[in-house]
C-alpha cells in the first residue's frame, strides 16, 4: 500500500521535473510531500503546515528576502523541499544556503530553464488527491473486512492476521503486564527476542501523539495503545518490512487497535455477565434459595467430576478496601491454595468480604487441612506486605448435604462476629466456639444482659463503686478450680487479701456460689460479660466515629 503523500524522490520522476537537478540535501529525498505551493514572501513560517514542496523564482532574494533566513524558516516550518527557477531573478544558489540545506538534509531542486509553476502544482497536487482518494477507497474496503472479521469466533487473533496480510508488516501484540504476547506471523524464539529488544529500546524514547499513537523517530515501526473502559490493556505494534511507516499504515493500525478494543469490551461484557450469573447462583445457594435439583444440576454443569464428602463455608473479611481487579487476584491465589489441600472452591465477594463455599474432596481431617491452607494464605505477599490489610476468617458448620450450605454460611458469619467481639482470632471454627454460641443466641433473644445482671451484677456494681477487682478475682478463682494458692499466685496478691475478697464475694453472690448447681451459671455470666463488654466498646467506637 502507498501513503497519503509522495516523497521528493518520487516527485522527481514526474515529467515536469525532467530537466530539474538536485543541488543540495541529497539525503533528504525520502521526505514526504503532502502539497505543492508557491511561496515568494519574506516570512513563511506561519503560513505553512509542514510537508509542502515550495516553488520559488528567487524574486526579492538579497533585497526584501535574505536567502539563508528564508531557507531556515522553511526548514523550521517542516517543509519537504525547495524548488528554485534559476532563470530571471537568480542564477545560482548561494553557498551558505547549500551548506545549510546539506546540514539539515533539506532538498534544494533547481530549474535552469523557465517552467510553468501552474503545471507543476496542478500535476503533483492532482496526483496527491487521486492517491488519497484511492487510499481512502482501499481503507473503506479494509474497514468492511475488519467489521466482518469482528463477527467471527476468535476475532481478536483474526484481526492481528488481517493487519499482517493487509500491510505486509510484522505484527506484535503485547499485554500491559506482559503475560500475553502474540506475533503475526508467528516467529521463532530468536526473532521474537530481536523484536522485544527493539520495543524495549523504543520505550525509553517513545513519542506519543494526540491519539496516543507512538513511533520511533526513524519511523521504522509504530504502535497503538489498546484501551478499553479507560484502561490501557496492551500495545499493538507493527514493524514494516523494507519501508517507512506511512500515514496509511498508521490509520490501518489505529482501526485495528479500535477493533481489538471493541472485541475486548465484548469479551469483558460476556465475562462480566457470566460472573454476575455465577455470583447470583452462589449467593442464592448461600441463602438457601435453590432447590436440591437446581443446585445439583448447576454444580454438575460447572464441574461434573466433583463428588464431595461434605461442604462448609468460610467468610474472609479484609480490613482494607480493594477494587474488583484485586479481588480477582485474591480469589485466584485462594483457589490454588485450597485446591492443593483437597478443597474445591466457589467464591462470591460482598463489599469487603469474600465468601468461600468449600467442597471437601478428601475423607480425612478437613479442619486440619483448612488450618494449614489459611496459614499458608496469611504468609503470602497479599498480607505480609500490607500491615493494614489483615484477613479475618470465620468457618461455619460442616455439612454432608450441599443443599444445607446456607446453615454453614450463617454460622460462618456468626463465627466471625463472635471472634471480633471477644478477641478469639485463633479460633475460627464455629463448632469450636462452644459456650459463645449459646451466649450469642441468648443475646439475639434480648435476655443476655438480664441474665448476666442477675448472677454477677452486684459484683460489677461493687467494682465500679469501690474501684475494686472482685470480678477479676472471681474469674481467676473459678479458672483455678477453687485453688486459693493458684488464684493468689495468678493475681499477685497474698492469701490473706484473697480470703478477704472471697468473703466479700460470698456476701454478694451467696455462700453457695462454688456449688456445682450454681457455679456453671456464674461462669456463663462471666463469659456473657466479656461478650457484652466487647459489644459496648464497639458501640462506643461507632458513636465516636459518627
Structure description:
The chain has 546 residues and is an alpha+beta fold. It has 4 domains: 6-128, HprK N-terminal domain-like (Udp-n-acetylmuramoylalanyl-d-glutamate--2,6- Diaminopimelate Ligase, Chain: A, domain 1, 3-Layer(aba) Sandwich), CATH 3.40.1390.20; 150-267, GAF domain (Beta-Lactamase, 2-Layer Sandwich), CATH 3.30.450.40; 287-433, Alpha-Beta Plaits (2-Layer Sandwich), CATH 3.30.70.3400; 443-545, Orthogonal Bundle (Arc Repressor Mutant, subunit A). The protein is 51% helix and 16% strand. It contains 18 helices and 16 strands. The protein has helices at 8-11, 67-76, 95-103, 117-149, 155-167, 189-203, 247-286, 292-302, 324-340, 366-378, 381-384, 405-422, 435-444, 448-466, 470-479, 484-491, 495-509, 519-545; strands at 6-7, 20-24, 32-33, 35-38, 52-56, 81-85, 108-111, 169-175, 181-184, 213-215, 222-228, 231-240, 310-318, 343-350, 353-360, 391-395. It has a 5-stranded mixed beta sheet, sandwiched between helices. The chain has a 5-stranded antiparallel beta sheet with strand order 9-8-12-11-10, sandwiched between helices. β14 and β15 form a beta hairpin. The protein is elongated, with a radius of gyration of 41 Å. This is PucR family transcriptional regulator. InterPro entries: CdaR-like_regulators, PucR_C-HTH_dom, PucR_C-HTH_sf, PucR_dom. It holds the Pfam family PucR. Residues 10-127 form the Purine catabolism PurC-like domain.
Amino acid at each position: 500500500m502507498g501513503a497519503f503523500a509522495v516523497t521528493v524522490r518520487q516527485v522527481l520522476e514526474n515529467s515536469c521535473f525532467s530537466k530539474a537537478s538536485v543541488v543540495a540535501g541529497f539525503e533528504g529525498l525520502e521526505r514526504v510531500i503532502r502539497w505543492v505551493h508557491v511561496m515568494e514572501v519574506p516570512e513563511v513560517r506561519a503560513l505553512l503546515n509542514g510537508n509542502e514542496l515550495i516553488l520559488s523564482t528567487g524574486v526579492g532574494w538579497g533585497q526584501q528576502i535574505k536567502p539563508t533566513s528564508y531557507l531556515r524558516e522553511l526548514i523550521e516550518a517542516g517543509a519537504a523541499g525547495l524548488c528554485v527557477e534559476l532563470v530571471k531573478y537568480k542564477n545560482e544558489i548561494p553557498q551558505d544556503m547549500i551548506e545549510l540545506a546539506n546540514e539539515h538534509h533539506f532538498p534544494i531542486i533547481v530549474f535552469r530553464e523557465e517552467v510553468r509553476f501552474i503545471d507543476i502544482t496542478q500535476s503533483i497536487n492532482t496526483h496527491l488527491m487521486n492517491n488519497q482518494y484511492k487510499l481512502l477507497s482501499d481503507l473503506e474496503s479494509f474497514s468492511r473486512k475488519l467489521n466482518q472479521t469482528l463477527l467471527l469466533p476468535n476475532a481478536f487473533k483474526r484481526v492481528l492476521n488481517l493487519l499482517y496480510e493487509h500491510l505486509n508488516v510484522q505484527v506484535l501484540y503485547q499485554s500491559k503486564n506482559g503475560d500475553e504476547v502474540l506475533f503475526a506471523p508467528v516467529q521463532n524464539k530468536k526473532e521474537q527476542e530481536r523484536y522485544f529488544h527493539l520495543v524495549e529500546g523504543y520505550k525509553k524514547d517513545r513519542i506519543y501523539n494526540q491519539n496516543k499513537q507512538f513511533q520511533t523517530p526513524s519511523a521504522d515501526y509504530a504502535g497503538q495503545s489498546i484501551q478499553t473502559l479507560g484502561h490501557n490493556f496492551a500495545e499493538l505494534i507493527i514493524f514494516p518490512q523494507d519501508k517507512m511507516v506511512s500515514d496509511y499504515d498508521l490509520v490501518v493500525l489505529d482501526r485495528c487497535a479500535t477493533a481489538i478494543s471493541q472485541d475486548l469490551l465484548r469479551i469483558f461484557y460476556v465475562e462480566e455477565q457470566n460472573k454476575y450469573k455465577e455470583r447470583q447462583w452462589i449467593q442464592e445457594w448461600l441463602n438457601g434459595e435453590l432447590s436440591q435439583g437446581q443446585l445439583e444440576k448447576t454444580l454438575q454443569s460447572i464441574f461434573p467430576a466433583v463428588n464431595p464428602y461434605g461442604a462448609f463455608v468460610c467468610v474472609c473479611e479484609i480490613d482494607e478496601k480493594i477494587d474488583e481487579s484485586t479481588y480477582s487476584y485474591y480469589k485466584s491465589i485462594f483457589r490454588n491454595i485450597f485446591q492443593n489441600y483437597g478443597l474445591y472452591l466457589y467464591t462470591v465477594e460482598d463489599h469487603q468480604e469474600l465468601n468461600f463455599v468449600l467442597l471437601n474432596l478428601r475423607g480425612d481431617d478437613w479442619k486440619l487441612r483448612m488450618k494449614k491452607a489459611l496459614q499458608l494464605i496469611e504468609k503470602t505477599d497479599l498480607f505480609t506486605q500490607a500491615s493494614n490489610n489483615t484477613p479475618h476468617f470465620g468457618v461455619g458448620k460442616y455439612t454432608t448435604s450441599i443443599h444445607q450450605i446456607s446453615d454453614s454460611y450463617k454460622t460462618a458469619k456468626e463465627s466471625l462476629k463472635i471472634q471480633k467481639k471477644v478477641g478469639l482470632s485463633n479460633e475460627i471454627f464455629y463448632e469450636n466456639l462452644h459456650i459463645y454460641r449459646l451466649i450469642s443466641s441468648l443475646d439475639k433473644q434480648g435476655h443476655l444482659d438480664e441474665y448476666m445482671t442477675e448472677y454477677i451484677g452486684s459484683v460489677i456494681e461493687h467494682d465500679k463503686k469501690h474501684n475494686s477487682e472482685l470480678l477479676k478475682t472471681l474469674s481467676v478463682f473459678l479458672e483455678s478450680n477453687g485453688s486459693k494458692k493458684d488464684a493468689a499466685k495468678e493475681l499477685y496478691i497474698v492469701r490473706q487479701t484473697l480470703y478477704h475478697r472471697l468473703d466479700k464475694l460470698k456476701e454478694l453472690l451467696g455462700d453457695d456460689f462454688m456449688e456445682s448447681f450454681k457455679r456453671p451459671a456464674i461462669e456463663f455470666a462471666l463469659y456473657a460479660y466479656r461478650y457484652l463488654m466487647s459489644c459496648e466498646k464497639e458501640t462506643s467506637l461507632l458513636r465516636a466515629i459518627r
